[in-house]
Design goal:
Blueprint: E1 4-7, H1 10-15, E2 22-27, E3 36-38, E4 43-45, H2 51-68, E5 69-79, H3 84-95, E6 100-107, E7 122-129, E8 140-142, E9 152-154, E10 158-160, H4 180-190, E11 196-199, H5 206-213, E12 217-222, H6 225-236
Parallel strand pairs: 1-12, 2-5, 2-11, 6-10, 11-12
Antiparallel strand pairs: 3-4, 5-7, 6-7, 8-9
Helix pairs in contact: 2-3, 4-5
């Protein structure tokens, strides 16, 4: 099943797509960090004049994603402590407060300590449905208790997947690259087999690669030529 990557402003690209044509939207947008995110090879600007400017940017794009989702579709919005509370209000207004399914915690484990407060070791993923019914296939994870050791159990709203370390084979150099194991689990759980997944801030293409791996069709968008080149190269290596 073929997937595509498009370079451009995701708002403009999405406006050219037909309504109700996706089963799942996943987005890992700028986090309002106020800095240029960089690695040795790649970078993107995450500086904003103020919070209202950032929220206005996000509001337009979330509304467009709502239009693009099928009646039984859903959205996964990846964010962190800086804007999670603000973006949840935006999603309440666009999708309906009654349509939140889960507030997921991705506990990634890596990162330093802080002398001024508790060390930050997680991101947030807000899971909303468009309507009253949606696809969900509970992921199975290995049990950790002595009683159930060696057995599988249904996953909870706390997801334990390690962040990508600097020496990982899957690392391609994009500053905010997420683990393929995380996206594969999310897509498999939240998109019906053979469905369509859109990622409007696709970066190095992890969501689209994961969609391809589980038999879905991914549509990725990014305004960075470097990101698009990385994503296309990763897709070309998929069977």
């Amino acid at each position: 099943m073929s997937s595509t990557i498009t370079r451009g402003d995701c708002l403009e690209v999405m406006r050219g797509l037909p309504s109700e044509s996706f089963e799942l939207a996943y987005l890992d947008p700028p986090f309002f960090t106020g800095v240029v995110q960089r690695t040795e090879k790649q970078s993107f600007d995450d500086r904003w004049p103020d919070m209202p400017a950032y929220l206005g940017f996000m509001r337009e794009r979330l509304a467009e994603l709502h239009r693009l989702l099928a009646p039984t579709g859903s959205i996964l919005l990846h964010c962190d402590w800086r804007t999670c509370h603000r973006l949840r209000v935006e999603l309440d207004e666009i999708f309906g407060a009654e349509n939140i399914v889960n507030h997921l915690i991705w506990r990634y484990g890596l990162g330093g300590s802080s002398p001024a407060g508790f060390a930050r070791k997680h991101d947030d993923i807000l899971f909303y449905a468009k309507g009253k019914t949606w696809f969900f296939e509970p992921p199975l994870v290995e049990a950790t208790s002595n009683r159930m050791k060696g057995q599988m159990k249904k996953g909870t709203d706390v997801i334990d997947v390690p962040a990508i370390n600097n020496m990982a084979k899957e690392r391609v150099g994009w500053p905010t690259q997420k683990p393929i194991a995380l996206l594969e689990m999310l897509v498999r759980a939240c998109c019906k087999p053979g469905g369509r997944v859109i990622d409007p801030f696709c970066g190095s293409g992890t969501t689209i690669v994961a969609a391809q791996m589980v038999g879905c069709r991914g549509v990725g968008i990014d305004e960075s030529a470097e990101a698009v080149a990385l994503a296309e190269a990763r897709l070309s290596n998929q069977p």
